[in-house]
Amino acid sequence: MEIKSLKKLKLYGFNNLTKTLSFNIYDICYAKTEAHRKGYIEYIDEQYNAERLTKILTNVSSIIGANILNISSQDYEPQGASVTMLISEGKINSSLEDDSSHTESPGPLPETVLAHLDKSHITVHTYPESHPDDGISTFRADIDVSTCGKISPLKALNYLIHSFDSDIITIDYRVRGFTRDIEGRKHFIDHKINSIQNYISNDTKELYHMIDVNVYQDHIFHTKMLIKDFDLDNYLFGITKKELLPSEKRKIKQKLKKEMYEIFYGKNMPKI
Fold first, then answer.
1. Sign of torsion, CA 9 12 14 16?
2. Contact 153, 19 (CB under 8 A)
3. Rounded to an integer, what distance in angstroms lies between the CA atom of residue 15 and that of residue 190?
4. Is the bond into 78 cis (omega within 30 degrees of 0)?
5. What is the model's pLDDT at position 120?
6. Cα–chain-centroid distance for residue 188?
7. CA distances from 145 to 25, 47, 67, 155, 259 (A)
8. Which regions in the chain score pLDDT beneath 50?
């Protein structure tokens, strides 16, 4: 299929393609004592409570030009939060009604409305947790943006990455279903994409090691990101590295690196 010709598709009816972005972030921390671990979970739970997550998703809906129909939000006990938004087609900014939504380029921060969508939703769930023995605590947030219409939810990715302090990011993108042009021919994708990385700004890409796993024939795209810089102070809660002995710092660093590599590669690993 000629991807170039898809930029100005004339469709027979509504664009029936469903484009889904799944965005997962992880924040890793070392909390030495049980009190510190409890404090970290409480801190993260407050930082990413339902109210703040609702603001983030509201900005996402603004970026993709959606009207919010309904918001359901919940903070959980003992920790965690969820927000679900039902969204519908919004007014297109006429100055931006061009091929920009089909190009592989980073999306904006939420000052600009790009396009529209319909019959769609945005969800977020958070998962704070801690290791029972070795002081490692991990916070995960999962966000799904599912759209039907002209724009790809990948245009919200740049904003989402900048909304969280993330050590590890995993991103999945898939286009499902098909739509028909005015001649009745099926189209299983309506925009060119070689890599999710092309929707991320260069300054962000410089901060991460990145790996792609793509299945082009099935329109399935996957990107994993692991932070490059490692300053132990950024991973300690309740203490600083000045308070630790050299042997303690080495041991804690090994634990943190092991946790990060296991999440990044998706498997348990021996000690490093």
1. negative
2. yes
3. 9
4. yes
5. 79
6. 24
7. 14, 21, 14, 10, 27
8. 1-6, 91-98, 109-118
Distances (CA, A) of 250 to 19, 108, 128, 229, 254: 44, 40, 25, 16, 6
Name the token pair of 98. 């061009």
Fill in the amino acid letter for 82.
S
> Which residues are catalytically annotated?
120, 125, 148
In degrees, rounded to 5, the angle at the alpha carbon of residue 259 between the alpha carbons of residues 256 and 261 is 110
Rounded Cα distance between 58 and 68, Å, is: 8
Looking up tokens 């739970």 gives: 45
Task: Decide: residue 232, CB within 10 A, 0-12 exposed, 13-18 middle, 19+ buried.
Answer: middle
Token digits for 251? 């041991």
Length in residues, the chain = 272
Instruction: Summarize pLDDT for 177-208 with one digit per residue, the tens.
Output: 888 888 889 989 888 899 999 999 999 999 99
